[in-house]
């Protein structure tokens, strides 16, 4: 079965779309009333209960089981020297020993041996300063929406070979490492599929809310208020789950 693409409603389960279509007017009214209540003064909120969101709750209760056995399509922004390595090996979590060797090999044609050796000292400083570095950067981070590939945090992946982990190492190394990283490789996007529930602990809570907001946005005259999330996957993504590895300007990943 094809994965659900949050940017393409024609890939969503039919029962979800039919319910959202039938209740769109009520969903909008409930969300606007809730938003108005949230922005009201403290005394009003102390004296009055929040407005009911019956249709909203029904929609979330429908979406959760409907997505239980489905895959989601997600996107990982990066900067690659070798596009084929991900197609062949999948998207691998950070392994400091392996990946620092690969980093130094990529830098060797741009920097002197003494400059490349500064990477080791920078890594030691980074790990000493941030005890959570390896665990946090050791996850695979993705987004379920193309728009966030080209806006905000993902930009650092396009700008610097190695992404945020290596960007932080470069800050500790100083010198020309940071500038050199921006010259290595090409901005790219890895498109992959993953189970909607089970791989990312944030998805189960964020997905129903996001689907409602995105459906209303698709119908026009609606600006999503609370949608999307950072997908954090603490396992390697196998090559069978990789759908594509493309340049960042490829139409497949245009927002």
Category by helix and strand content: alpha+beta
Spatial extent as radius of gyration: 22 Å
The proportion of residues forming helix, as a percent range, comes to 40-55%
Quote the distance from N terminus to C terminus: 24 Å
Runs in which pLDDT lies below 50 for 5 or more consecutive residues are: none
Shape call: elongated
Main pleated sheet? 3 strands, antiparallel
Q: Going across the major beta sheet, what is the strand order?
A: 1-3-5
What's the count of strands? 5
Counting DSSP H or I runs of 4 or more residues, the number of helices is 11
Determine the oligomeric state from the structure: single chain
- For the residues shown, what is the average pLDDT? 88
- Percent range for β-strand residues: 5-15%
Order of helices and strands: HHHEHHHHEHHHEHEE
Describe this protein's structure.
It contains eleven helices and five strands; from the N terminus they run αααβααααβαααβαββ. The chain is α+β, with helices and mostly antiparallel strands. It has a domain of 116 residues. The protein has a three-stranded antiparallel sheet. α1 packs across α3 and α6 packs across α9.
Brief summary of the model shown:
This protein is α+β, with helices and mostly antiparallel strands. It contains eleven helices and five strands, in the order αααβααααβαααβαββ.
């Amino acid at each position: 079965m094809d994965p659900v693409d949050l940017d393409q409603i024609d890939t969503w389960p039919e029962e979800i779309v039919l319910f959202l279509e039938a209740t769109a007017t009520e969903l909008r009214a409930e969300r606007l009333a809730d938003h108005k209540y949230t922005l009201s003064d403290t005394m009003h909120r102390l004296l009055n209960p929040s407005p009911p969101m019956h249709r909203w709750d029904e929609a979330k209760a429908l979406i959760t089981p409907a997505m239980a056995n489905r895959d989601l399509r997600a996107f990982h922004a990066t900067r690659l020297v070798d596009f084929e390595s991900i197609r062949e090996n999948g998207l691998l979590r950070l392994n400091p020993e392996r990946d620092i060797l690969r980093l130094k090999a990529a830098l060797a044609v741009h920097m002197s041996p003494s400059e490349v050796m500064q990477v080791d000292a920078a890594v030691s400083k980074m790990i000493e300063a941030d005890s959570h570095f390896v665990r946090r950067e050791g996850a695979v981070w993705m987004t379920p929406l193309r728009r966030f590939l080209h806006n905000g945090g993902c930009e650092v992946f396009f700008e610097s070979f190695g992404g945020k982990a290596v960007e932080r190492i470069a800050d500790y190394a100083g010198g020309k490492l940071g500038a050199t990283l921006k010259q290595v490789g090409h901005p790219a996007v890895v498109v992959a599929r993953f189970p909607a529930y089970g791989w990312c602990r944030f998805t189960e809570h964020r997905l129903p809310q996001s689907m409602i907001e995105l459906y209303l946005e698709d119908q026009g005259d609606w600006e999503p208020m609370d949608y999307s999330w950072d997908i954090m996957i603490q396992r390697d993504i196998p090559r069978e789950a990789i759908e594509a590895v493309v340049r960042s300007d490829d139409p497949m990943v245009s927002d």
